[in-house]
């Protein structure tokens, strides 16, 4: 089943066209990542899906419901979990009290101890919210997102401010949630996060979805040329190589670009071994997800962007507490 359907979604703030007709779908049980430069409209899209923001045009369906309809939006509250960028929580309550209080808002919440364990806050369960570090606070946000046992979880930049080990734990948690059947829609600026988590993804730039696919195939990444780089053995020239190669670059390496590197590597290493030489700093790389992502978004930088006229309004208060 499809968990989220977005078709021709448009949103304008004043006369600033932020979404110019975007389309994507999220399959039930997958982790879907929405990416894009600052101000591209990711949060706006998420807020529309969550029912916190109205849309101007287009069709939106979340778990078969329309978040733009008040009655559907109320039903969605039970089915959907949110981890937003600015969750307001009571600073003088403890971690446990905060999670227990939120559990009380749902008909069939998860067990509070299980949630505390899940987000790794057992040691901090008696601490007041105001005394938590930034990363611990974000883990509490995650706990509040999952305590209602949602079918669909929205994560807006879930690991911003986490240390490397807390990020790994959060990824583990997100994968566990997916494996237990929760659909997850997340936004992030970290390509390693997308690589580690996303089953599918879409890039939004200049008000449109400009690429979509999987982390492995985005922007034709899987069929892109491989780049072989190495140090020329002492006493040899680029022209001695058994195939065409670029001259040494400023980092002292020779580079060869090929569609399929197996045969080229074979003749290259054969060539070196026959001379009793080695190919220092030898690497074979295809463009990383980050390379592809930057290429895609850069190609939209020159385009006329969303028009900007008039003052910004205030975001609605999205806190549930
Ligand atoms: N309430 C509002 N009124 C007017 N303009 C707004 C409002 N909310 C957002 N915007 C503008 O809409 C554009 C998209 O904002 P949005 O927060 O959706 O982007 P984003 O992709 O989530 O960005 P970031 O990566 O920085 O979080 C921005 O230019 C922003 O300034």
Can you offer a commentary on this structure?
Helices cover 30% and strands 23% of the residues. It has nine helices and twelve strands. Helix 3 crosses helix 4. It is α/β, with parallel strands linked by helices and 321 residues long. The strands form three sheets. Strands 5-6-7-3-8-9 form a six-stranded mixed sheet, sandwiched between helices. The structure holds adenosine-5'-triphosphate (ATP). Adenosine-5'-triphosphate binds at residues 13, 16, 18, 36, 38-44, 312-313, 315.
- The backbone outline, from C-alpha atoms, is elongated
Q: How many helix segments? A: 9
- Approximately what portion of the residues adopt beta-strand conformation? 15-25%
Mean pLDDT across all amino acids:
87
Mind telling me which CATH architecture of the largest domain this is?
A: 3-Layer(aba) Sandwich
Number of beta strands? 12
Major sheet characteristics: 6 strands, mixed
* Ions and ligands: adenosine-5'-triphosphate
The ordered string of helix (H) and strand (E) elements is: EEEHEHEHHHEHEHEEEEHEH
The helix content, as a percent range, equals 25-40%
Structural class, from helix and strand content? alpha/beta
Radius of gyration: 24 Å
Uncertain residue ranges? 306-321
- Distance between the ends: 31 Å
Strand order of the largest sheet: 5-6-7-3-8-9
The name of the CATH superfamily of the largest domain reads P-loop containing nucleotide triphosphate hydrolases
> How many domains comprise the coordinates?
2
CATH class of the largest domain: Alpha Beta
CATH topology of the largest domain: Rossmann fold
Subcellular location: Cell membrane
Pfam families: ABC_tran
Biased composition (Basic residues): 312-321
Keywords: Antibiotic resistance, ATP-binding, Nucleotide-binding, Transport
């Amino acid at each position: 089943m499809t968990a989220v359907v977005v078709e021709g979604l448009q949103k304008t703030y004043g006369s600033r066209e932020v979404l110019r007709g975007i389309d994507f779908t999220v399959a039930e049980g997958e982790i879907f990542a929405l990416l894009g430069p600052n101000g591209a409209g990711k949060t706006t899209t998420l807020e529309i899906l969550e029912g916190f923001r109205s849309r101007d045009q287009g069709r939106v369906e979340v778990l078969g419901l329309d978040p733009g309809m008040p009655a559907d939006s109320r039903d969605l509250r039970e089915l959907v979990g949110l981890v937003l960028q600015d969750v307001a929580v009571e600073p003088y309550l403890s971690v446990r009290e905060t999670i227990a209080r939120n559990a009380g808002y749902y008909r069939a919440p998860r067990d509070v101890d299980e949630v505390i364990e899940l987000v790794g806050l057992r040691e901090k369960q008696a601490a007041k919210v105001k005394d938590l570090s930034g990363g611990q606070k974000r883990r509490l946000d995650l706990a509040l997102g999952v305590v209602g046992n949602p079918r669909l979880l929205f994560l807006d930049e879930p690991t911003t401010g986490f240390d490397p080990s807390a990020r790994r734990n959060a990824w583990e948690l997100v994968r566990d949630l997916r494996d237990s059947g929760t659909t997850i829609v997340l936004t992030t600026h970290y390509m390693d996060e997308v690589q580690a988590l996303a089953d599918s993804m879409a890039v939004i730039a200049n008000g449109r979805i400009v690429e979509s696919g999987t982390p492995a195939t985005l922007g034709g990444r899987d069929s892109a040329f491989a780049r072989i780089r190495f140090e020329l053995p002492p006493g040899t020239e680029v022209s001695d190589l058994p195939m065409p190669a670029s001259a040494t670059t400023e980092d002292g390496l020779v580079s060869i670009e090929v569609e399929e590197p197996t045969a080229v590597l074979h003749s290259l290493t054969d060539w070196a071994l026959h001379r009793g030489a080695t190919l220092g700093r030898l690497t074979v790389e295809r463009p990383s997800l980050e390379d592809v992502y930057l290429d895609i978004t850069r190609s939209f930088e020159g385009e006329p962007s969303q028009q900007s006229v008039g003052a910004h309004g205030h975001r609605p208060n999205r806190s549930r507490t």
